[in-house]
Write a structure and sequence with these properties.
Layout lengths: L14 H11 L14 E10 L4 E10 L5 E10 L9 H15 L6 E4 L12 H9 L3 E5 L17 E6 L2 E7 L8 E7 L3 H10 L8 H10 L2
Helix pairs in contact: 2-3
């Protein structure tokens, strides 16, 4: 069954409106594992064209555990929200939802190029997308938005908790020996332990998961 999520009609255009939605919806994030069998794993990424005026959103579906490309989609739409850290989901999700709607395969899990719970209001892009689609999602970010941590060990699979106000909001995970770690967080319907496991299983020779690598190629042209 394809993913056919609709953009909510009251999609905000101001920071105040976006913050209100984050505060209203963050309590709907499911932090425990509700992930079933995974046969299809998706990646999403977003780029911008014409000096940010056009959003270029990409979605890919890979077979799991083979990590071979099964399906892909790219859409271009007018950008509807400015670039403001902490509110990137409002800039990127409209395009992502349209890209997902172009896919014929419903993914069992989505790895997002962004934050989940590791967000000031515990509602980053991965959590926002998960709540809107009710699909399991994981935040896989290349850089830290919030929190403190100890540097993890140097080998693939080594990780340390990412802490914010004494709460564990994610994991700092080494996905390849001797390379910079990634910042993993719960998006929706996946526990942190399971999120770490699937990120590692989706990562082969490179720092980034194959889902992210495929989606990034499409989003960046």
């Amino acid at each position: 069954m394809p993913v056919k999520p609709a953009i909510p009609p009251d999609w905000p255009t101001t920071v105040a409106g976006a913050r209100k939605i984050q505060e209203q919806l963050h309590g709907q994030v499911v932090r425990k594992n509700m992930l079933g069998a995974v046969h299809w794993v998706a990646g999403i990424d977003v780029g911008f064209e014409k000096k940010g005026k056009i959003t270029r959103a990409a979605a890919v579906v890979l077979r799991f555990p083979e990590l071979t490309l099964h399906e892909q989609a790219v859409v271009r739409i007018p950008t509807c929200f400015p670039y403001i850290p902490g509110y990137l989901s409002f800039r990127e999700i409209p395009g992502v939802l349209q890209a997902l709607s172009q896919l014929q395969t419903r993914p069992d899990l989505i790895l997002c190029d962004g934050q989940g719970l590791a967000h000031p209001r515990r509602f980053g892009l991965a959590s926002h997308l998960g709540v809107l689609t009710n699909l399991p999602t994981i935040g896989v970010a290349k850089s830290r938005l919030i929190g403190t941590y100890k540097e993890p060990g140097v080998y693939k699979g080594d990780w340390e908790p990412l802490l914010d106000k004494e709460e564990t909001v994610g994991a700092v995970l080494r996905t390849r020996d001797n390379v910079s770690p990634l910042f993993i967080s719960i998006g929706h319907r996946v526990s942190l332990k399971v999120a770490i496991d699937y990120v590692l299983r989706c990562t082969t020779r490179y720092r980034l998961p194959e889902t992210t690598r495929w989606a990034h190629k499409l989003a960046s042209g």
